[in-house]
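Trying the structure run again after the queue cleared.
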Amino acid sequence: MSASLTYDTARRVLEAGVARAQEIGQPMNIAVVDDGGHLVAFGRMDGAIKASIDISTRKAVTSVLMAAPTADLTPLVQPGAELYGLEQTAGGMVAFGGGVPLVRDGEIVGAVGVSAGSVEQDVTVATAAAAALEG
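Done. Tokens:
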């Protein structure tokens, strides 16, 4: 299967994230990017903070570029750690939770980035959104 992410699939991922955000009562910004980090779908729920528009998109791009959830990067970017300074590369990566790769048949086909809640809430919504890829 091709490592592509269709708009319909991206929209399904986005809608799953919105549904989870509504369940937890936290308006979110949710970005879905393809395997090249290009935006395919985006939603800003009513009441989601505007600063998180950019953050959610950067989380998704970071997750694709690093082939990892952004939460996994947090310990690696601390002062003295192996990837310290990573956030200053590639136009500004984000190394805290809320970005999750979208994987199909073992290949990364994109990523979802979520921002506007606590890091825990962002991860919860991003994880639920990513799970919709399989559904």
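The radius of gyration is 14 Å. Worth checking whether this holds up in the mutant runs.
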